[in-house]
Amino acid sequence: MIAAAKLDAVRTRFWSLQAQLANAAMLPREEFVRAARELSDLTPIVAEIDALQKLQAEIAGLEEIVADPAADAEMKGMAQDELQGLKTRLPEAERKLLMLLIPKDEADEKSAILEVRAGTGGDEAALFAGDLFRMYQRYAEAKGWKFEVLDTAPTDLHGFREATASISGRGVFARLKFESGVHRVQRVPVTEASGRIHTSAATVAVLPEAEEVDIKIDDKDLRIDVFRARGPGGQSVNTTDSAVRITHIPTGLVVSQQDEKSQHKNKAKGLKILRARLYERERQQRDQERAALRKSQVGTGDRSERVRTYNFPQNRVTDHRVNVTVHDIEKFLAGEALDQLIEPLITDDHAQRLAQLNADG
Fold first, then answer.
1. What is the DSSP string of 203-249?
2. Beta bridge partners of 66
3. Which of 107, 119, 262, 320 gets the most CB atoms within 10 Å of its CB?
């Protein structure tokens, strides 16, 4: 049962936003965009609240007729029949509203910045990082998303010490956000002559791509250095100082970009990555503050945790957060079976958010 006070609060907020947007000319652009987004999110919820409360009022009216000793017997019978039908609709109406009330991640509809880095394991870790990066690229292409490589640090064996991409499309972050963490691989490396199985790791970070309305960066807070781009092994790949290193002075965050031959393009790509990292930093701070207030946190997203193991000898991929295993590892790394782990992760997240909603009353 959903508390009436919670429903009243939602409707009150809806009316407040409508009043704000009626005076749109008085609002700064950032506030207008945020209010419009929130109103758009609340509109279907208020519609479901109205539908549920109308159904409840009809049920209450029919129950009065059935309970009235002075009511006509035929009318009571008709009311009883109608009452049964309405009561069977009530659980589904409540379920639909409850699903809409589950707290949403404000970044779910955003595009994303993908960062993959080799971890422990030397050349084999870099090869595995390359496998993961290409897996996400194929997955994005199958979803019809735009996959733009922003920066790479390749190795001589065609792996990546690190690689960054922008993945654009609606709802990208909602589907990929649970990929963040340490991914471990167990296999015989191509560099291993004795055939021994090695364990290596790569880290994946998926950041919501921030727009200027989400994060404003002042020029005075930036230090921008330019240098000559270099390739694997230190060889020069450019004859001009086109590579860019951007330092965000207040936080100390540093982004380097050298894939483009144009300094201007490298700066633009670097700022896109920096804005995403700053936005994620703010999101994590808010999450930590909410967790401190509740004295518990669901889904910390701690990237130091091992989230998934890719075991080649047993031809399986296991996600340790939901304890789900899929087989046919080559198909998985081709991006064709990734949804088999993404869907259980989304379902588990919804269940935890629903539990928190009920705990909050």
1. EEEEEEPPPTTT----GGGEEEEEE--B-GGG-B--SSS-EEEEEET
2. none
3. 107
Q: Give 143's pLDDT tier (boundaries 50, 70, 90).
A: very high
Q: Phi and psi dihedrals of 207, rounded to 5?
A: -115, 135
For the stretch 259-300, pLDDT in tens is 788 888 888 888 888 888 888 888 777 767 645 544 332 233
Distance CA 216, CA 185 (A): 39
What tokens were used for 185?
Answer: 């691989």
Q: d(Cα 233, Cα 176) in Å, to the nearest integer?
A: 32
First to last CA, the chain: 10
Q: Which two tokens stand for residue 150?
A: 């922003």
The answer to whether 144 and 111 are in contact (CB under 8 A) is no
Cβ pair 254, 280 in contact under 8 A: no
Which amino acid is located at 215 in the chain? I
